[in-house]
């Protein structure tokens, strides 16, 4: 298996869609402070919870994957916000500071 850093999440999403899998994509749209991934970073998620890519270096991926499952089910995109001023900051691991906004939408 190729290390995650060298795999292109968009190519993986295309491959999954060709296989007939339902796919959502999460995109970093805004950061502030110590967010570990830049704007434009992607995480792709299929309906079985498999994912590739990263939107935060591991801090919020679990929460994003859970929201992506809902996006795949109801088809409604979501804007997610995480940060130290947010009540979920300690839960998702952004205790180092900073904020991140991630847009999650269904592909295809």
TrEMBL record:
UniProt GO MF annotations: xanthine dehydrogenase activity
Residue ranges of every copy of the XdhC- CoxI domain listed in the record: 16-83
Domain of life the protein comes from: Bacteria
EC number(s) reported in the record: 1.17.1.4
Alphabetic keyword roster: Oxidoreductase
Cited InterPro entries: MoCofactor_Util/Proc, XdhC_CoxI
Keyword Oxidoreductase: yes
Protein name, per record: Xanthine dehydrogenase subunit A
Native source species: Nitratireductor thuwali
């Amino acid at each position: 298996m190729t290390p995650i850093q060298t795999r292109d999440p968009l190519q993986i999403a295309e491959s999954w869609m060709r296989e007939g899998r339902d796919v959502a994509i999460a995109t970093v749209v805004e950061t502030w402070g110590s967010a570990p991934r830049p704007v434009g970073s992607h995480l792709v998620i299929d309906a079985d919870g498999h994912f590739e890519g990263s939107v935060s270096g591991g801090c919020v991926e679990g929460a994003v994957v859970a929201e992506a499952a809902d996006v795949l089910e109801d088809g409604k995109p979501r804007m997610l916000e995480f940060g130290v001023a947010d009540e979920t900051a300690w839960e998702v691991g952004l205790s180092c500071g900073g904020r991140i906004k991630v847009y999650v939408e269904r592909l295809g």
